[in-house]
Amino acid sequence: MWRSKQEVREHVWKLLVEKKVALPPFPIRGRIPNFKGAKEAAERLRGSKEWIEASVVKCNPDSPQRWVRLSALEEGKLLLMATPRLKEGFLLLDPKKIAPFDYRKASTIRGAFIYGRKLKTLEELQTIGNIDLIIEGSVAIDTEGRRIGKGAGYGDIEHGILKEIGLIDDKTPIFTTVHDLQVLPPPLPQDPWDAPLSKAFTPTRTLEFGGLPRPKGILWKLMDPRKVEEIPLLRELREKLLRR
């Protein structure tokens, strides 16, 4: 039984390095770790029905999911990425407005700031319509769909904001790509705001999950007040809810 999320993270970061499957950027500690086979895991994800049918994809900006972001642009999907710590909201990349030879650069977080359009307000965010598929980065997952990120908590806040304004719901698929060594026996430690996965893709297999409940939105009573003040979209959402 794991005593804490951080214990899980430390175990996985150490394991990936010891088994020599970790890839730059180094050190991987404190990050969503890049890994050998990330491209193959992304290719497996691309074969899913949900991916094929998706027109609007939200993806995390971390290194191992770069192949997913590149594929989204190459296949003509609208790509939504969060800015670091949500300080400037989200970035929307429209492949129709980017030259194909720039897709590779645009799929990086630095390139996304060059080629993407910032969505800094709830109104701007709602212009994209429904999000068809969410891709999350993971430090570890278990075989029942629980996920642990790097510990900052911004992915959960992003999920909460999008749910509060109706761009996603409980049926919106949530996927991740990981190395096989990042898949652990259940249960991993979880908090009330953690959204479980629908599927996970490794270089060698596809895992399907179901049955774990999702949070209803932002859990305001458990939210750190400092994050509300630091994140403009979260502050705007709180003010909007208070006016109701």
Task: Write up what this structure looks like.
This protein has helices spanning 5-18, 38-46, 49-53, 66-74, 103-106, 109-115, 122-126, 154-164, 225-230, 232-243, and strands at 22-23, 34-35, 56-59, 78-82, 90-93, 117-119, 133-136, 140-142, 147-148, 174-177, 183-184, 199-201, 206-208. The chain is built from 10 helices and 13 strands. It has one domain (5-243): NagB/RpiA/CoA transferase-like (Rossmann fold, 3-Layer(aba) Sandwich), CATH 3.40.50. An 8-stranded mixed β-sheet has the order 6-5-4-3-7-10-12-13. Strands 9-8-11 form a 3-stranded mixed β-sheet, with helices on one face.
State the gist of this model.
The chain is of the alpha/beta class and 244 residues long. The protein has 10 helices and 13 strands. InterPro entries: FTHF_cligase, FTHF_cligase-like_sf, NagB/RpiA_transferase-like.
Instruction: Examine the coordinates and then state which fold CATH places here, giving the name of the CATH topology.
Output: Rossmann fold
CATH hierarchy: architecture:
3-Layer(aba) Sandwich
What percent of residues are in strands? Answer: 15-25%
Q: Could you list the spans in which at least 5 consecutive residues all have pLDDT below 50?
A: none
Q: Name the CATH homologous superfamily.
A: NagB/RpiA/CoA transferase-like
Order of helices and strands: HEEHHEHEEHHEHEEEHEEEEHH
Number of domain units: 1
Helix/strand-derived class?
alpha/beta
Main sheet characteristics: 8 strands, mixed
User: What do the pLDDT scores average to?
Assistant: 96
CATH top level label: Alpha Beta
Strand order of the largest sheet: 6-5-4-3-7-10-12-13
The helix fraction, in percent, is: 25-40%
Tell me the overall shape: globular
- How many strands in all? 13
Query: How far apart are the first and last residues' alpha carbons, in Å?
Result: 44 Å
Radius of gyration: 17 Å
**Helical segment count:** 10
